């Protein structure tokens, strides 16, 4: 999905899948085809401990300053992010080639992506938080084998220390 452009840094937890002069498509490390690789286990552990729900793919806008990038799209499925990449190549790249000033390119991209986000917000009545709550409800019913009549009120991500090791979990409140 298109996201409001915000500054990000290139971290070691991402690998570059594709790039062009203005954009970079990145894949979360550990998502390669190798099963149970050390990197995959390490990234999954870090995400689990931090209760991180990072998307598996993202598209960044490269500026003339190599230290500043803007995330403009995120997705969990490769097909979704590739659809955004194709849209960028078909609709943005021809226009960007005609703009001479690098700062004007960044401003144009930010406004264009912001307009796509606004358009998507009006089309999509589902909220991200409600999606997370639906996923938590499914997990609650599955883990505790609860009947569908049992309603989840709220859930919290929590942890406790077991000796020197933090243990992560969730606290569910239902009626």
Automatic annotation (TrEMBL):
<protein>
    <recommendedName>
        <fullName>GRAM domain-containing protein</fullName>
    </recommendedName>
</protein>
<dbReference type="InterPro" id="IPR004182">
    <property type="entry name" value="GRAM"/>
</dbReference>
<dbReference type="InterPro" id="IPR011993">
    <property type="entry name" value="PH-like_dom_sf"/>
</dbReference>
<dbReference type="Pfam" id="PF02893">
    <property type="entry name" value="GRAM"/>
</dbReference>
<feature type="domain" description="GRAM">
    <location>
        <begin position="138"/>
        <end position="174"/>
    </location>
</feature>
């Amino acid at each position: 999905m298109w996201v409001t452009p915000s500054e990000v840094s290139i971290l070691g937890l991402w690998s570059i899948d594709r790039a062009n002069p203005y954009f970079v498509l990145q894949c979360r490390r550990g998502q390669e085809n190798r099963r149970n690789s050390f990197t995959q286990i390490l990234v999954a552990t870090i995400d689990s401990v931090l209760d991180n729900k990072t998307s598996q793919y993202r598209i960044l806008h490269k500026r003339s300053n190599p230290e500043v990038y803007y995330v403009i799209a995120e997705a969990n499925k490769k097909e979704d992010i590739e659809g955004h990449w194709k849209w960028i190549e078909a609709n943005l790249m021809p226009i960007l080639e005609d703009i001479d000033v690098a700062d004007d390119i960044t401003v144009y991209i930010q406004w264009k992506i912001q307009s796509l986000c606004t358009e998507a917000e009006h089309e999509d009545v589902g909220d991200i938080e409600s999606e997370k709550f639906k996923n938590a409800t499914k997990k609650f019913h599955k883990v505790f084998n609860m009947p569908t009549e049992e309603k989840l009120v709220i859930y919290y991500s929590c942890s406790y220390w077991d000796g020197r090791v933090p243990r992560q979990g969730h606290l569910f409140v239902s009626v």
